[in-house]
Write a structure and sequence with these properties.
alpha/beta, Rossmann fold, DNA polymerase, domain 1, six-stranded parallel beta sheet, 9 helices, about 15% strand, globular, HAD-like_hydrolase_sf
């Protein structure tokens, strides 16, 4: 799965954000807890949030809150904005990896289902805007991940077409499906190796257990 010699190095890498480069699960959990309580719904545990949160709030909230989804979005984002910068945590090796890839000349971008303005605020807060040519969040494109449109937007001014020259790096099935929908190479980045038959819809082309390993693979 990790034999790069058979595929060649990419020209561009697009990264998921949450749980791929940074850890914001505690903030998402806290904001959802406030929202569920406001609407009289039983809150999810942190583990349940990690398992259930995949699509953007724009797409997921109508299924949870029905015709009150816009009201729920306002409550969620108010709670999220109040603490997301203070609780933002960089995952081990992420800064070193991005610096190394940037210096090596790869085109780098972010494709996330986090609200675009909030996502870019986090990127700016970490001083990582210099690494990314394009940072695409939820509602920036016509449709959100796993649709192909956010990837197309992230590559729009890169000179690189979606395809084998583009690796999409993430930690969930949504990221791998997005890569496939856009015609890019799906790369799974997380500590746990893929379980047997875990990714039946899209099998990752490469699996790397941490960010330093990805940098080493591409060097």
């Amino acid at each position: 799965m990790n034999d790069i010699t058979q595929h060649g190095k990419p020209r561009a890498l697009l990264f998921d954000w949450d749980n791929t480069l940074v850890d914001t699960w505690p903030t998402i959990h806290a904001a959802l807890h406030v929202t569920f309580e406001r609407f009289g719904m039983p809150p999810w545990s942190l583990d349940e949030v990690r398992q259930r949160v995949r699509v953007s709030a724009r797409e997921g909230f109508p299924k949870l809150f029905g015709d009150r989804s816009n009201e729920a979005l306002d409550v969620f984002y108010e709670a999220f904005k109040a603490q997301h910068i203070e609780q933002l945590s960089v995952l081990e090796g992420a800064a070193e990896m991005l610096s190394g890839l940037h210096e090596a000349g790869f085109y780098l971008g972010v494709v996330s289902n986090k609200s675009g303005p909030l996502l870019r605020r986090e990127v700016d807060h970490l001083g990582w805007a210099r690494y990314f040519s394009r940072v695409v969040g939820a509602t920036d494109a016509e449709r959100d991940k796993p649709a192909a449109e956010p990837v197309q937007l992230a590559l729009a001014e890169s000179g690189v077409m979606p395809g084998k020259d583009v690796w999409f790096v993430g930690d969930t099935d949504i990221d791998l499906i997005c890569a496939q929908n856009a015609g890019c190479v799906p790369v799974l980045l997380r500590a746990e190796p893929p379980g047997q038959q875990e990714f039946e819809e899209v099998v990752p082309r490469f699996y790397v257990c941490d960010r330093r390993s990805l940098l080493a693979l591409l060097r």
